[in-house]
Structures are given as C-alpha cells and as structure tokens.
Amino acid sequence: MNVIERIQEGVVEAVKALYDADITPDQITINNTRKEFEGDYTVVVFPFTRAARKKPEQIGEEMGNFLLEEVDELVGFNVIKGFLNLVVSDAYWRRFLLETATGDTFGQSAPKAEKVMVEFSSPNTNKPLHLGHIRNILLGWSTAQILEAAGYEVVKVQIVNDRGIAICKSMLAWEKFGEGETPKSSGIKSDHFVGKYYVLFEQKFQEEYKSWQASPAGLAAYTDKAEESQDELAFFKAFKNTYFNEYSALGQEAKAMLLKWEEGDTETVNLWKKMNQWVYDGFADTYENLGVSFDKLYYESDTYLLGKDIIVKGLEDGIFYRKEDQSVWIDLEDAKLDHKLVLRSDGTSVYMTQDIGTAQLRYDDYGVDRMVYVVADEQDYHFKVLFEIMKRLGAPYADKMFHLSYGMVDLPSGKMKSREGTVVDADDLMAEVIAEAKAMAEERGNLAELSEEERQAINRQIGLAALKFFIIKVQPRKRMTFDPKESVDMQGQTGPYVQNAYVRIRSVLRKAGAADTSRAADYNTLETAEKDLIAQLFAFPAIIEEAAEQLDPSAIANYCFDLAKAYHRFYHDYSILRADTSEAIAFRIQLSTAIAQVLKKGMELLGIEMPEQM
RNA sequence: GGCCUCGUAGUACAAUGGAUAGUAUGUAGGUUUCCGGAGCCUAAGAUGCAGGUUCGAUUCCUGCCGAGGCCA
After folding, report:
1. What's the CATH number for A445-605?
2. pLDDT of amino acid A181
3. Would you say A30 and A53 are in contact if contact means Cβ atoms under 8 Å apart?
4. Distance (Å) from CA A492 to C1' B54?
5. Which nucleotide lies at the shortest CA–C1' distance from A497?
6. In this model, does residue A564 exceed pLDDT 90?
7. Measured CA to C1', what is the nucleotide nearest A612?
8. I need a labelling partner for A581 at 20 to 30 A (CA). Which of A73, A220, A246, A459 fits?
9. How distant is C1' of B34 from CA of A594, in Å?
10. What is the pLDDT of residue A233?
C-alpha cells in the first residue's frame, strides 16, 4: 500500500474515531501541497465540518495528530485554514525511489482481466491520409498503449471504408483517363496516385456540370426549381448532388459501376481490388512511418450487409417497429433521443445497421468486454444512438461502449477544406517536420560524428516527436488549431524538449559508467528539489490509470513535460556526478535513471521514441 | 427550429468543487572557464456576460452572447 492509500485509510479511521462518522476514501480530497507551504500532501478538511461540528482549523489539528500517530510514513503536519498539510518522511521517498521507481515494470499496472477493443483511423480508400487522420491515429494508438499499461488486454482495429461511390469515382476516372498509368510508371506514392484520380473525377465532373449549367436544360432547371431568393450560384451549389444523381453522365457511369460491383461483376471487382491494393500499400507506408499498427482490419465490403438479421430479430422482440412504408425504426425518445431509421423501406441498410452488425461481429471474434471508437465529434449523436440501441438489444458489452470523441483540427486560416486545397497531407507533414529537425541539427552542428543513417533516424524521431506531442497535448474533445509553424517548434512545451531531458540524462549516465550506486540508500540529506522529483515519479502510475479511465492521452503528455521541466531545473541547480558526497552522487544517478525510464515509458505511451542523443 | 460540444494572457495549451488560476510561445532583460544552452532565471500579461448553489466556482445549475457540430 502506498502513502496516498495509507493517508486515505488514515483519514477514514480518523473521522470514525474522532467524530464517529463514516466516509469512503473517494470522499477525501488529497492534493499535492502547494509549494509555498511545508508538506507533501494536503487533505482538505472542509468537508468534515458537518460531521465534526467543529472549526476547520481544529479538525485539521486533531486529524493531523491522529494521522501522525497512525501512518508511519508521516513525520509532521501543519494546518492552514481548512488545509491539513502532511509531511512524508525522507526515508519513505528514498525507499520508494530505490525500490520501486527504478524498477523495470514501474508504471505497468497488474492485469485487469478485461479485453478492450480500440477502433481508430478507419479511412476511406479513395484519398490519402491527412492531418485529421493523424489526430485520430495518434489518439487511438496512444489510448491503446495507455490501456495496456493500465492492465487491459487491447485489440487495435480499424474498419476500412473500401466500398461505395467514392472509390468508384477513382476507378472510373482511372479507367476513362488513366491510359494504363500505374503508381510505378508515374512514380507517385500509390495512395496518392488513387487520390489523384479521385480529384480528376471531381474536376471532370465540375467541367461537365459547368457546361450543363449554361445549357438550356440547366437554365430550365434553375428557372423551375430555384427558390425565390436564390441566385444562380447558390442554386447550382445546392443542386450539385441532385445533378450528380439524376442528370450527370459521369454520375450515371459511377453509379453503374457501383451496381456492377454489388452484383459481383468480375471485371469491376478486379479493378476495385487493384486500386484498393494501391491504396493499402500507400497507407501501410504512412502507418509505418507514423509508427502504428493494427491487430485486425475490418473491411466495409465484408460488413456492409451485416446487422439486418439483428434488426429482424429485434423487430420480433418489439425493440424496433415497422412503418407503413415497411421501413424499420426505433423509438428512443425516452432516452432523450429521437426516432431512428435502421432499415430502409426497400430493405437496404443504413450506417447504423452496419454498425450494429459490426459490433456483434467483433464481439463474436474477440469476446471483448469494452469497445472504444475513436471518431470525430461530428458523430457524437450517431454513437449515442448506437450505444442506446445496443443496450436495448441486450448486448453484454453495451454498457462499456465508448466514443472517444475528438474535435476537428483547424488551420490558422480556418477549416481544412479539400475543395479549397487546404487539406494538410499526412505524408507531406511528416516529411516537413523531419526536414525541420534535420535543419535544426545542422544549424547546431549536432550529430556531426554520426553516420548519415544514424542522423536520419534521430531526425525522424525528433521531427515526429514535435508533431505528435503538439497534437496529443491537447485534450481530445477540444477542437484544436494546428499551426504548421508551431508544430515544428522544438523549444518550450514540445516533444523535443522532453527528449532533450532524456538525452541529457543518458549523457550523464554514460559518463557515470558503471559507477557504484550501492551507497544511494545512505544518502540522508534529501533536498526539496529531489523530494519533489520523487513525488512526481510517484504519481506516474496514477496518471496512467486516470488517463486510461478518461481515455485522455493529453494527461500523459502534460505529465511528461512537467517532469522534464522539473528535471531540467534540477540539473541546472545541482551537480550530479560532481556532487559533494559519494552518497549524493549515487543517489542522484539513481534518481536520474528513474526519471529517464519514466520519461521514456511515458512518451512511448504516446508513440514517441526517445533518441540517445540529439 | 431542436439537441450536443467548446469559450482561460496577443497566440497555443493546463488546472478530480479547494489555498495567491499553472505552463509554453511571443515581448523586454539576464545567464555558458564546470555533468549537453533544443537548457536555466527575471518581468509584464487571462477565467465571454449576468445570475444561482456552496465555507469555497475556471469547474456544477439557469439565462444571454460568441465559435463549431449533429438532426431535419
């Protein structure tokens, strides 16, 4: 049992013994003592005034004396207003550092015997990955790592949206205008290659639409269908989808292709396979470069028909109802949601149908206890509805389905819009930050003695650290502004700053060589700065648990930064290898070792690698 | 129109209902004969507005204003 748990237990006992009242540990607020006061942990005693019928100051005194008596780790206390500041013994901190924090498994929780599925990335296959995907992927990956560290068994999956009208557009454009060009012959990365044809389709379609607008048919449509106040521009913008579906020759062709695909037409299916494979090859590079992987890929082409049988069964059980037009719905008004369509009148699926079926499929595949969906916040409502439906269907995991909802990424100039060409491409972005790291290293003259290959590896680690940290440090639910200039910053609250703390320690430890650290336990003049660092290390497991529970990797990022900052300051203020006594040297080596280990482990949870030098 | 999320220094981010709201960047200044200066130190600078609950509100509740989103 650690010191915080002992304090909690002690407070419960104190309230019982002193005031004859029962409280639970979670009713106790224990904070870190603010640095202007003496002490390590602070118990807020205001909440006990009711039970005790005494002034906060008096309760603090009484409780302080009780805890001092009962909790061995405590050596003193003081009371300021309603705050009981507790002083933990140096011996405890010393022991904690040497026996626990320096251990290999520090930060890894015991197994929780619960399996979690994390779904993330889940791209469409018609275009390459962009900045929005990067936020998704980083969140998903780090959440999965954090859940593992917290003791869960984790399965990382994505569902690839490999079918539908979008990929048919790319296919059609390639067939019509590609003249046999391939990624190889063009030298273009293969997912970008497919994206190029998607864009080409949109261009050709726009051209067709423009000329139709000027034609008699187009003008007639405007005259007949435009609303009164609508000018031509607004009308044709709003009319685009209708035009695609009902008038466009290209639209007809694309839709015909989708139909042929659905019928299993060999030629179409082969084309589809070929182009999707190009995309997968390209994605694989991007994922590898980002340092992420998946345990299982689900494909929409396999799952898009799932769920219908569940709907039919639910209809029999009265969970769903059928309207006169034969469409099937669910009434969720008593859950403060709406009526929701789950099967169209012609019997075809909607997204919800598919998601119901896919959830069940995953459960059948893995027997997971919980599911985490990493999906942007524009789908908040969708997931509320999905989870509510799963509850009513009696899915055993329904109470443990979570939507890790995150805000969209904006640019300083506003929203990313593919139509306006402001989308930041994932591959370009990574290349840019790595180039920036390289430029920075050259400017400093670092790494000159290394081989080209080693330098490249380090620049990659630094560049990606800057990018990843910049994105992960923001709480998921918040919309964030991505300033490309700031994302490559390497000073201040950044990934490279944390890496630098690690590199410093590694450098010191290399110089220390195989120094004898056996005397560390005899170091008995613990400085406040040292104690604070140990207390920060102490918090690591709890931070991980909290981040796992909240599905919030930003907590880890901020923790790592705070620890790195505290170490940088300590390093500046104190000598390590030139400390006054051999005990101090030994102790500080151990302290530095533990901090390096925690920084590495913490950043690893975010998918950020630590270089040995930079 | 209904519902959801978010409003904190110039900018970007923190703060399980707890003490004098933390950090970074930018700005101004300082810092290297010594373990790595991608560092360290100093200064100025913020809770959208109005109520409510509470011993205590950036945090919870209500209304308004603003940004974004979802559903027709």
Report:
1. 1.10.730.10
2. 97
3. no
4. 38
5. B38
6. yes
7. B36
8. A73
9. 24
10. 82
Domain boundaries, chain A: 3-88, 164-272, 445-605
* CA A131 / C1′ B45 distance in Å: 32
Q: Is the dihedral of CA A549, A552, A556, A558 positive or negative?
A: negative
Instruction: List, for residues A306-360, the tens digit of each pLDDT value.
Output: 999 999 999 999 999 999 999 999 999 888 888 999 999 999 999 999 999 999 9
- The helix/strand/coil state of A293 is coil
A401-406: strand order across its sheet: A296-299, A153-160, A115-119, A370-376, A401-406
Average pLDDT over residues A114-120: 97
Where do the DSSP E strands lie in A475-571?
A: 480-481
Nearest to A193 by CA among A202, A205, A184: A184
Span CA (A504) to C1' (B38), Å? 11
Q: What share of chain A is helix, strand, coil (3-state, %, to 5)?
A: 60, 10, 30
| Encoded tokens for A107 | 């930060």
Interval A435-472: pLDDT, tens? 999 999 998 888 888 999 999 999 999 999 999 999 99
Q: Which residue has the tokens 């018609």?
A: A126
| Predicted pLDDT of residue A448 | 86
Helix (H, G, I), strand (E, B) or coil at A156: strand
Quote the CA–CA distance of A494 and A462 in Å, as a whole number: 10
State the DSSP string of A70-115: H-TTEEEEEEETTEEEEEE-HHHHHHIIIIIITSTTTTPPPP-S-E
Cα A89 from Cα A70, distance rounded (Å): 14
Nucleotide nearest to A56 (CA to C1'): B55
First to last CA, chain A: 39
Tokens in use for A160?
């690839």
Nearest nucleotide to A499 by CA–C1' distance?
B38
Q: Among A109-118, A206-215, A245-254, A515-524, whose mean pLDDT is lowest?
A: A515-524
- Which nt has its C1' nearest the CA of A491? B38
Distance measured from the CA of protein residue A354 to the C1' of nucleotide B67, in angstroms: 33
Distance from residue A17's CA to nucleotide B6's C1', rounded to whole Å: 46
E strand intervals along A11-93 = 30-32, 41-44, 74-80, 83-88
SS3 state at A120 = coil
Grouping H, G, I as helix, E, B as strand and the rest as coil, residue A434 is helix
Comparing every residue's Cα with the C1' atom of nucleotide B16, the nearest one is A29
Give percent above pLDDT 70 in chain A.
100
Structure ipTM over 0.90, yes or no: yes
B chain positions with any atom within 7 Å of a protein CB:
3-7, 11-20, 23-26, 34-41, 55-56, 68-71
Here the tokens at position A374 are 């990493």
Residue A597 near residue A102, CB atoms below 8 Å: yes
**How many residues would you count in chain A?**
614
Q: What is the pLDDT of residue A374?
A: 97
Confidence of residue A50 (pLDDT cuts 50, 70, 90): confident
How much is the mean pLDDT over chain A?
Answer: 94
CATH placement of domain A3-88: 3.30.1360.70
Q: What six digits make up the tokens of A230?
A: 């609508």
Residue A26 above 90 pLDDT? Answer: no
Strand partners, A88: A74
